[in-house]
Amino acid sequence: MVNNDSGQKKRIPIWVMILADTVLIGVTLVTFAYFHHVRKSILASEGTVISGNTETAETAKTTENTETVETAETGQASSDWAVRFAYHFTDTIVTTDSSYSSPDISITVNTVTLGSGNSKITYYVADVYIADIECFSTYFAEDTYGTGYRESVLDMDIASDALLALSGDYYGNSKSYEDGVVIRNGILYRAAETDCDICVLYYDGTMVTYSPDEFDAEDAIADGAWQAWTFGPGLLDSDGDILAVFNTSDRLMSDNPRAGIGYYEPGHYCFVVVDGRDTGYSTGVTMQEFAAIFKELGCVSAYNLDGGKSAVMTYNDQVVNQPTEGGRTISDCLIIKEAD
Questions:
Q1: Helix (H), strand (E), coil (C) string for 228-276
Q2: β-pair type (207-210, 187-191)
Q3: pLDDT digits (tens, 9 = 90+) for 165-193
Q4: Predicted TM-score of the model (pTM)
Q5: From edge to edge, which strands make up the β-sheet containing 197-202?
Q6: Per-domain boundaries in the chain
């Protein structure tokens, strides 16, 4: 007797087909989520090398990136600074309570007090000469890029082996990776549009502040951006005079503790921190008064960084100023250190 079913294939139950489709869809969605959200964040944290010397670039270079970035030519941009500023450098390291010098770095920290009584202000100026642009570095809290990381400036100073540190632009005070420009130590992390002024320190040592409509990320990258901060406002115009109008809210124009960076010429900079909210010691300064400090110092460009409780300067592993309410933890700082 012939079995007529012997040559027929068994049908797959419908429930098995539905289950298989469901699993396939789930795997697809998980893969999509990983590459478009998780992996995107990982890649953002790695960044893209855009400037620096060859050795630094090879060390920091990532193996994968979400976009192709045309990099600037690398090389030692500051080879003549050691000669130009030779008077400020020393053959060996010389350190005092308020100064440091070596073959590549000169730092002098001064305290300035103006006025008296309820009008008294106190601020600190660190005059900085470097023979190598890579001595002017930046550092992320916990040595990690991301909006959830916070440390005190002093902790970042110590962790990075900095000689001098100043609170940065608090790039991490953002709910996403989408706000503003972040270029640190020749690595591009983000270059989103913003309504804030942008400050760029190039690998050749020049420092330029831009209004939002002036800034072009591709141009900055092509020109060899070494650092870029998004906060502001810029404080001086192209002639080194105090700006008539500052790109900031009225709320931020009044007396406050402040931090900022000034630029004289390639290889010569200053860090300034003004204490405030402490009558009889220092009331703080208005934005215009802050700009006036940099003009008085002779800077040709200056940029306001995160202030208030964030305004902290450290030197020789100690806090220089008296931060409001003891300061606070932040996401980043500017540092001066011996080049690796």
A1: EEEECCECECCCCCECCCCCCCHHHCCCECEEEEEEEECCEEEEEEECC
A2: unpaired
A3: 999 999 988 654 567 899 999 999 998 88
A4: 0.82
A5: 48-49, 187-191, 181-184, 225-231, 197-202, 207-210
A6: 73-336
